[in-house]
């Protein structure tokens, strides 16, 4: 019977080998960043790409895409959270600066308190991001009518007028 050689390592390698055995190939995940499911990531991408339907600027998914390509879970969580917060703030409060808002003579009563907390609660509960973002839009029928008109309007000047009026509702 032929004997197989026993593979062994020098004793001086044992301690480093034991230390390395406990290491993983990926860094630990930051528990302060909420996890995102694939469905939630796709929903976020959809909302970013359709921002113009609410007369909002185009939101880039470039940093999120780069994080997804890297496979770095912390980067994915951070970039998704940042993009979602930007979108949420735009849907709730709009994108007009204070100087533009000053001439509107309207009280800003958008409830932006704890926006991140509400977003995190949505993610943790597994609830739909569609419901979260839709709930941030103005609920008034006047806003809905402007949004519907924007979709079909082709004249750039009228689209701008509709967009400005939608911004005032936020």
Structure, described:
The chain has 170 residues and is an all-alpha fold. The chain has a domain at 35-98 and 114-137. Helix content is 58%, strand content 0%. It contains 9 helices and no strands. It has helices at residues 14-21, 38-49, 62-70, 73-93, 98-102, 115-125, 129-134, 141-152, 156-169. The model is unreliable at 4-25 (pLDDT under 50).
Keywords:
170 residues, mainly alpha, 0% strand
Write the layout of secondary structure elements.
Layout: H1 14-21, H2 38-49, H3 62-70, H4 73-93, H5 98-102, H6 115-125, H7 129-134, H8 141-152, H9 156-169
Helix pairs in contact: 2-4, 3-4, 8-9
Structural class: mainly alpha
H/E element sequence: HHHHHHHHH
Strand-residue proportion: under 5%
Number-wise, the strands total: 0
What's the helical proportion of residues?
A: 55-70%
Summarize the structure.
The protein has helices at residues 14-21, 38-49, 62-70, 73-93, 98-102, 115-125, 129-134, 141-152, 156-169. It has 170 residues and is an all-alpha fold.
